[in-house]
Amino acid sequence: RGALRLGAPPSVCQGLLPGLLNRWKADFPEVEITVFEGEDDEVAGWLAGSAVELAVLVDPPPGTGVVVGVDAFHALLRRDHPLAGEASISVTDLEDDPFLLSRGGCESHVREVFRQGRAPFAPAHRIREMGTLLAMVRCGVGVTLVPGLTAAMLDERLVLVPLDQRVTRRLVLSGPPGRPWHPAAEALVAAAHPPA
């Protein structure tokens, strides 16, 4: 029992947390959880600085918490894009499109996709907010790479296409590093399992 503040990145808040929150509400009815949405580095800072008692961290050091998901990166395209119906594409297939870079914590993963594909990395625009990124792709300004959990945020005008360059991020539910965890945080982490 108790009250917990939980930090998580936007795609996790929309694509993973709703299911976890429903499970926790059923399994731990006396634990009240308040969600704080922030970028990857903000969430890690909140947990380290005690602003939250629990967080979903992206690619933390091994041995931290429990993995609740592994999220692969995809190309995000308009549904009418010539490559939208492909089973998978290479990042090099996107060289003719203006590239929109998400600055919200995914940049290192995106750079790794380009490195693996031996493709030139030359973003046309650098975008911080996921809503802006989606709107720009929707309007045909360019294409981008996003984690698969972004699917929960898409409308019928947008599509995710798997990449030949497989780059993933580990999503880890954890309490604070280097100090005791709230007992309710320990219980939630112990009960967490990857989504089916």
Q: What tags apply to this protein structure?
A:
seven-stranded mixed beta sheet, 196 residues, 2 domains, two-stranded parallel sheet, alpha/beta, single chain, D-Maltodextrin-Binding Protein, domain 2
What does the oligomeric state look like here?
Answer: single chain
According to CATH, the fold-level topology of the largest domain is D-Maltodextrin-Binding Protein, domain 2
Reported CATH architecture of the largest domain:
3-Layer(aba) Sandwich
Overall tally of domains? 2
Give me the count of strands: 9
- Give me the number of helical elements: 6
H/E series, N to C? EHHEHEEEHEHEEEH
Largest sheet: 7 strands, mixed
* Structural class by helix and strand composition: alpha/beta
Average pLDDT metric: 92
Q: What is the CATH homologous superfamily assignment of the largest domain?
A: Periplasmic binding protein-like II
Broad shape: elongated
CATH class of the largest domain: Alpha Beta
Amount of helix: 25-40%
Question: Strand content of the residues, in percent?
Answer: 25-35%
Uncertain segments: none
Radius of gyration: 18 Å
Distance between the termini: 26 Å
What does this structure look like?
This protein has 196 residues and is an alpha/beta fold. It has two domains: 2-68 and 169-191, 3-Layer(aba) Sandwich (D-Maltodextrin-Binding Protein, domain 2); 71-168, Periplasmic binding protein-like II (D-Maltodextrin-Binding Protein, domain 2, 3-Layer(aba) Sandwich), CATH 3.40.190. It is 28% helix and 28% strand. The chain has six helices and nine strands.
